[in-house]
Amino acid sequence: MTSPLYKRVLLKLSGEALMGEDQFGINRASIEHMVGDVVEAANLGVEMAIVIGGGNIFRGVAPGAKGMDRATADYMGMLATVINSLALADAMEQAGLTARVMSAIGIDQVVESYVRPKALQYLEEGKVVVFAAGTGNPFFTTDTAAALRGAEMGAEIVLKATKVDGVYSADPMKDTSATRYSHITFDEAIEKHLEVMDAAAFALCRDQKLPIKIFSILKHGALKRILLGEDEGTLVHI
């Protein structure tokens, strides 16, 4: 069997991807599809950490959050990521993987708090670590949490799963002539004003020389193909 290209990766999942065709919440078929791809990756021997967003849950309460203090709304979003992390870890356990959820905010009766040495130990033991509650601070997105945890864990790459199979020269939904970049440098992405991650996350990855791969979570097997070095998605590198 071909050896994987990476030993340790950080996978960033959007909360919206868990909705499937639903308007909000967790779609069981969608989460099982994601977990199936994670199982394939784990079977290659790749150590995997995951950061997941909370948009699928927060979207359902967003109308009531209008006019709310930004920090309060962000803390609500962090709690939504805890719910998603628990659901994801449960699905992984049912699929035969051992998962651990670690939260950036203290909820010790529900999940353990994030401690870097413990997280590294779990990864070395072959467990999948799911980082919940973002960075633990308001005003930062889960993209930034993914970049931060990726750097802390010594991940070789951040894999950002989206609904689009890479970074395009233009919006492929609006421009049929848009072409997908197989790879692009951080500087080129800035020059072309391409949206890869939010500014803080992008800057952190660039400073840490941590490459980013953008790919579609909707394409079954895409994660495994990336790990085996096949042409999938867009690689953003130094």
UniProtKB/TrEMBL annotation:
Its EC number is 2.7.4.22. Its main location: cytoplasm. Residues 7-216 form the Aspartate/glutamate/uridylate kinase domain. It comes from the Bacteria. UMP binds at G54, D74, T135, G136, N137, P138, F139, F140, T141, T142. It is found in: Cytoplasm. CDD domains: AAK_UMPK-PyrH-Ec (cd04254). It catalyses: UMP + ATP = UDP + ADP. Inhibited by UTP. InterPro entries: AceGlu_kinase-like_sf, Asp/Glu/Uridylate_kinase, Uridylate_kinase, Uridylate_kinase_bac. It is an enzyme of class 2 (transferase). Pathway: Pyrimidine metabolism; CTP biosynthesis via de novo pathway; UDP from UMP (UMPK route): step 1/1. GO terms for cellular component: cytosol. ATP binds at K12, L13, S14, G15, G55, R59, T162, Y168, D171. HAMAP family: PyrH_B (MF_01220_B). Belongs to the UMP kinase family. Homohexamer. This is Uridylate kinase. It comes from Oxalobacter paraformigenes.
